[in-house]
Amino acid sequence: ANGATLSVGFTFTAPPSGTVDANSTIGTTTSQGANTLPDTASATASISPLADVTTSVSVPPSATAGSTVSGTVTFSNAGPSTAAGTTYGVTLAPGLGTVDFPSLPPGVTASYDNTSGTVTLTGLPTSLPDGGTASIGFTYTAPASGSVQVASNVGTTTSEGANTLTDTASATTSISPLADVTTSVSLPPSA
What we know:
Blueprint: E1 18-25, E2 40-47, E3 53-58, E4 62-64, E5 68-77, E6 87-92, E7 99-103, E8 109-112, E9 118-122, E10 133-141, E11 146-155, E12 168-176
């Protein structure tokens, strides 16, 4: 009918980034005469990348003084887009002496500063893909007593939207003191 309009609504799941083009075409068997109005239309939607990075710390809840304590810090991206400009941080309690890193991603190095407790990480990727993870395994010798806290953080320059997952984590191992007492008796062989 003259002046009639037909609207078609649609939805789609946005890709992780880029653009989405929508095109329409209309035709008729009726003569259009001069046909001054367009028979095609298009629109483009720009998709803003969205990532949700998170971190976790896994350590035993307790350990005995002098024992070897193992832990893992994990960084991950729940997507749906790649997390660009990703930054990573790990801190252990200061004064642990030697901290070893037996499990690192290929090309990654880690070093522990005994004074500050800061772990310097080099070689981690500056972007973390959707579903991507990076794990840092570490060991240290439990101190004489007290507790050892491990903390981690992760960030990205990509928008995190509602940021439903935490960007920081920490966990603590309580250290049980251990003592090895001994006694001896000394008597003269004869009296």
